[in-house]
Amino acid sequence: MNRKTLRGLVGVILFVAVGVTNASAAKVIDVSASVHNFSLAAYNEGLPWGSSNETEVCIFCHTPHNANVGNERPLWNRTDPTSAWIFYNSTTLTPAARPGAVGTVKPASLMCLSCHDGSIGVNRVINESNITGPIKFVNDPAEVFIGPDIFGVNPDKRIGGVVGDPWGTGNLNDDHPISFSYSAAQGADLDLHPIGDAQLAGLVFYPRNGTADHVECGTCHDPHVAYDNSGALGALTNASANPNYAPFLRISNTGSTMCLTCHNK
Ligand code: HEC
Ligand code: HEC
Ligand code: HEC
Ligand code: HEC
Q1: How far is the CA of 133 from the centre of ligand 3 (A)?
Q2: Does any ligand 1 atom lie closer than 6 A to the CB of residue 223?
Q3: What atom of ligand 2 comes closest to residue 221's alpha carbon?
Q4: How far does the centroid of ligand 1 lie from the alpha carbon of residue 189, in Å?
Q5: Under a CB-based contact definition with an 8 Å cutoff, are residues 29 and 238 in contact?
Q6: Would the CB of 31 count as within 6 Å of ligand 1?
Q7: Are 213 and 105 spatial neighbours (Cβ–Cβ below 8 Å)?
Q8: Alpha-carbon distance 214 to 67, whole Å?
Q9: Is the pTM for the entire model greater than 0.85?
């Protein structure tokens, strides 16, 4: 190999290395290295949301058999919450996104709310592990709800609660509107970009087979994305994770770019 080829080769190696550095700033899918890992591994790292006996990661949400399926629930291992939903409303809200038009929470969001509404325990699954049996958390072996005493203060991660009633369920009154048709809202609102722009940017509308275009939790959030590269999750941390995707975002919201993908403000 002559000097020139060698230099060329070094160049290629450098190029590849730079490529790898850039790739590390991309989105990393790794649910095990996220706070959605509720298994014994998380418990062993001293994380308050880790189960004291369940080693499986996917089981909290998915099961290979006897699942709650249909209408966008991918082999879902949880029952739907049945809270009396209170939706966001305002005098300026486009009618298509108001409670009357929304009607009820659609399945894609019911999945998230089966934990985040606060009415069903994180450890309540349909199909328990054949090895472990009932999933236990050391603080409360019976049923562990997302709520102030275990997972945070004020409503925090409990989307069904509100400030003043952090143990509330089904109260989405202080949350971004969901379960409405984006196109219906966009058609009546000049301050919204065409749905194609949002889809191109990486946002998702439901059902995913395109029979409607509802805004749901999963429009903005991706439940499997890893975003901690700081070591906060101990051995579960993924060094390549990109913090711009916190908390479980579909696309980065740095500089409010995600909001501006839909809102023309
Ligand atoms: C905290 C809950 C949660 C955990 C834990 C979880 N998932 Fe999911 N998963 C979801 C939700 C919600 C969806 C539907 C999301 C959507 O619309 O993109 C989904 C979708 C999926 C899908 C179908 C859609 C797709 O994107 O391909 C597969 C396959 C999947 N998950 C596999 C897994 C595996 C394997 C694990 C464990 C390593 C896991 N999930 C852990 C919540 C979870
Ligand atoms: C099996 C129960 C469960 C399901 C299902 C679930 N989550 Fe979570 N989620 C949790 C728990 C527990 C936490 C951790 C709470 C904490 O950190 O205090 C959490 C944390 C979060 C966070 C905050 C992360 C952070 O870094 O602060 C977001 C955002 C989130 N979940 C969104 C979702 C969305 C969106 C869905 C549906 C696509 C979903 N979750 C489904 C249980 C669940
Ligand atoms: C329009 C986009 C959008 C929708 C729809 C949406 N979220 Fe979020 N959510 C966000 C953003 C952005 C953040 C982070 C806010 C921040 O860091 O400033 C967030 C934060 C959260 C958090 C962390 C709250 C905290 O205080 O730590 C949880 C939990 C959560 N979302 C769950 C949900 C659930 C469950 C749904 C559906 C009922 C949902 N989100 C629907 C955009 C959305
Ligand atoms: C998927 C597209 C989408 C994303 C992403 C999104 N929104 Fe929205 N948002 C809507 C739609 C559609 C409405 C209902 C139509 C309307 O009244 O503007 C709405 C409603 C609102 C409202 C209530 C307006 C009112 O009149 O009461 C506010 C405020 C808002 N969004 C802020 C945000 C912020 C802040 C973000 C980023 C964290 C965000 N949105 C992300 C689509 C989106």
Answers
A1: 32
A2: yes
A3: 35
A4: 33
A5: no
A6: yes
A7: no
A8: 24
A9: yes
Give tens-digit pLDDT for 88-125: 999 999 999 999 999 999 999 999 999 999 999 999 99
**In angstroms, rounded to a whole number, what is the distance separating the alpha carbons of residues 238 and 230?**
9
105 lines ligand 3 (CB under 6 A): no
Cβ count near 2 (within 10 Å): 7
Amino acid in position 83? S
258 contact partners, CB below 8 Å, separation of at least 6? 203, 220, 249, 250, 251, 252
Within 6 Å (CB) of ligand 4, which residues are found? 90, 92-94, 97, 176-177, 182, 185, 189, 192, 198, 203, 215, 219-220, 258-259, 261-263
User: What are 201-253's pLDDT values in tens digits?
Assistant: 999 999 998 889 999 999 999 999 999 999 999 999 999 999 999 999 999 99
Which has the higher per-residue pLDDT, 59 or 48? 59
Contacting residues for 217 by C-beta, under 8 A, at least 6 apart: 108, 109, 111, 112, 113, 116, 178
Which two structure tokens, joined as six digits, stand for 9? 């080769």
What are the tokens at 214? 């509802």
Tell me the pLDDT band of 189, cut-offs 50, 70 and 90.
confident
